[in-house]
Specification:
By secondary structure, the chain is an alpha/beta fold. It folds into four domains: 46-200, Alpha-D-Glucose-1,6-Bisphosphate, subunit A, domain 3 (Alpha-D-Glucose-1,6-Bisphosphate, Chain A, domain 3), CATH 3.40.120; 214-312 and 404-436, Alpha-D-Glucose-1,6-Bisphosphate, Chain A, domain 3, CATH 3.40.120; 329-402, Alpha-D-Glucose-1,6-Bisphosphate, subunit A, domain 3 (Alpha-D-Glucose-1,6-Bisphosphate, Chain A, domain 3), CATH 3.40.120.10; 440-578, Alpha-D-Glucose-1,6-Bisphosphate, Chain A, domain 4. Strands 17, 18, 19, 20, 21, 22, 23, 24 and 25 form a nine-stranded antiparallel beta sheet that branches. A hairpin with a 5-residue loop joins strand 23 and strand 24 (536-545). Helix 4 packs across helix 7 (161-169). It starts with a helix and ends with a strand. The model is unreliable at 152-160 (pLDDT under 50). Belongs to the phosphohexose mutase family. Pfam families: PGM_PMM_I, PGM_PMM_II, PGM_PMM_III. Its cofactor is Mg(2+).
């Protein structure tokens, strides 16, 4: 590997001129002294980027990773961006992950040096918060923006990632006094610029849960809950105090915040095996329901025992149950003023429900900045948006314009009480009844891992080059019935062929609906797109059948195999196929 040593010498000099952390300074110094330029290149040459996921990288020294320096630089860029608004204020929260509190304090220090009012969700007795408390606090205080130190960021505005990224690049040199972190925080408290807001915001959040989300506070069934070694347990318990609840148990081994996540290989409730300990706990107790949050409690998952077998529900199955429950709560005469929203890679069963029941449906791009802001826009037009979701177990209700695993748990408990506590039907029965009414929908989602990120553009260029017009007539045996390409800005289903969803020429995304000639009982829809954070080509497929689930699954699987053969060709492009 050839590296530019002169360039790296300058980068080392730049790093040492601004890093005040003795550990990371020492690491870079030692690598330089030992002449380990390959490691220096990995750590310093490619600056960590700010995007839809905020800052995301491993915690190491160097401009490429999460550390005091890069957090400070990002904080300066964000604060400078927020200063365009007056008066300027910011909400800051953090969870239990390594260095989260330290990074939150650095951000607070930067904001305070610029006279920005800081609503700090940490306090002497309530340091950790669940991620949705930040967007809730932004709304509550009318703050200019907010940051959650975990894996999430929450600007108050919608589509400002590029502007914030540019602002960061323009503000890389530490401002005067920003490294005096604890002195700045102390002065901020004395001047009234820093408010320890955790207790107040939590109190208001719980008030909102009670007033907006709880309609039936009687629960007469038993369940197990796991916060997955995260921060959800405390706020979940406080929400449960709003119910007249029967027996419930937490998974003790996973109850307390633990940044090592010692009982799971990957702390994501979606991952295979992540709920094994919770299910085993429920089995020993004789309970039939498990509720789970991810570590920062913005996502929610469910496992149920039905007919003697334990099953973990998919995000789309949970979303369907929520949608049926929420629509049941609406007055029939008001449905024409109701919208449900989900991401375009999530199930189209909400659209089928809307067509049959008379409410409205809107899909958005992937991510809750799109779902949440679409809900806000619709509410400004006078519509109700009681529910939105994405298939990656993110669910939004009236309380927060973002995914919230605690709100989701609160609603699911009432849903379970209404439909299943009596024991006459179970979750499988309810889903089957819903499919019988709206059609059987079966997703088949997976991805291809890329050996080289440049391969993604090559694949999509070759796809578009395989047909003469803006869209193909056929893909293998399938006939194309609709085609939307959000990279080039074409949609066959609109009058002027202009997509309703935002076009982005810098990202690859194609959605199409297909059918097999001679088969009027089943159709299939897919979206393929590049991942915004990983070297992956993601593929979301959903079959729909008027007959049964098997028919929907068969056409979805056939679609996967057809796209693999016609488009993705793993051997040609050196892809690793990861099926569902």
């Amino acid at each position: 590997m050839t590296v530019d040593k002169n360039k790296l010498d300058e980068l080392v000099k730049s790093w040492l001129s601004i890093d005040m952390n003795p550990e990371s300074r020492h690491e870079i110094e030692q690598l330089h002294i030992s002449g380990n330029y390959e490691q220096l290149d990995r750590k310093l040459s490619k600056r960590i980027a700010f995007g839809t996921a905020g800052l995301r990288s491993s915690m190491e020294s160097g401009f490429s990773h999460m550390n005091d320096v890069t957090v400070l630089q990002a904080s300066q860029g964000l604060v400078k961006y927020l200063l365009k608004k007056t008066p300027t204020s910011i909400v800051i929260g953090y969870d239990h992950r390594f260095n989260s509190q330290r990074f939150a304090e650095i951000l607070a220090s930067v904001a305070l040096t610029q006279g920005v009012h800081v609503y700090y969700l940490g306090s002497t007795d309530r340091g950790y918060v669940h991620t949705p408390l930040v967007p809730f606090a932004i709304d509550y205080y009318g703050a200019s923006g907010g940051v959650m130190i975990t894996a999430s960021h929450n600007p108050a505005n919608d589509n400002v990632d590029k502007e914030i990224a540019d602002s960061i690049e323009e503000n890389l040199t530490p401002w005067e006094g920003v490294w005096d972190v604890y002195d700045n925080i102390k002065k901020g408290v004395q001047k009234g610029l820093l408010s320890l807001a955790g207790d107040e915001v939590t109190k208001e959040y719980l008030k909102g849960v009670k007033e907006k989300l709880i309609q039936d506070n009687n629960l007469d069934f038993s369940f197990v809950y796991t916060p997955m070694h995260g921060v959800g347990y405390r706020i979940f318990k406080e929400c449960l105090d709003l119910f007249h609840a029967s027996t419930w148990n937490v998974v003790q081994e996973q109850a307390d915040p633990d940044p090592t996540f010692r009982t799971v290989s990957f702390p994501n409730p979606e991952e295979k095996g992540a709920l094994d300990l919770a299910i085993e706990t429920a089995r020993k107790l004789g309970y039939k329901l498990v509720l789970a949050n991810d570590p920062d409690a913005d996502r929610f998952s469910v496992a149920v025992e039905t007919k003697g077998q334990w099953n973990q529900l998919t995000g789309n199955e949970i979303g369907f149950l929520f949608a049926m429950y929420v629509i049941e709560q609406q007055k029939e005469q008001d449905l024409d003023r109701v919208y449900l929203v989900n991401s375009t890679v999530s199930s189209q069963i909400l659209k089928a429900m809307a067509d049959k029941d008379g409410f409205h449906f809107q899909d958005t791009l992937t991510g809750f900045k799109w779902i949440g802001n679409k809900a806000i826009d619709l509410q400004k037009e006078g519509f109700k948006v009681p529910f939105g979701y994405e298939e990656a177990i993110g669910f939004m209700f009236d309380l927060v314009h973002d995914k919230d695993g605690i709100s989701a748990a609160t609603i699911f408990l009432q849903l379970y009480q209404k439909w299943f506590s009596g024991g006459k039907i179970d979750v499988t029965d309810k889903l089957e009844a819903g499919y019988a009414k709206y059609g059987w929908f079966k997703d088949y989602n997976g991805y291809y891992r890329l050996a080289d990120m440049s391969t993604l553009d090559k694949i999509f260029t070759n796809i578009r080059g395989s047909f003469d017009s803006k869209s193909p007539e056929n893909i293998g045996e399938f006939k194309v019935t609709s085609w939307r390409d959000l990279t080039i800005g074409y949609d066959s289903s609109t009058v002027d062929h202009t997509p309703v969803l935002p076009v982005d020429s810098s990202s690859q995304m194609i959605t199409a609906s297909l059918k097999l000639p001679g088969n009027d009982n089943a159709v299939v829809r897919f979206t393929c797109r590049g991942s915004g954070t990983e070297p992956k080509l993601k593929l979301y497929i959903e079959g729909k059948s008027t007959i049964n689930e098997q028919s929907a699954k068969e056409i979805a699987v056939k679609c996967w195999e057809t796209l693999k053969q016609e488009w993705f060709q793993p051997e040609k492009y050196n892809l690793t196929e990861v099926k569902p």
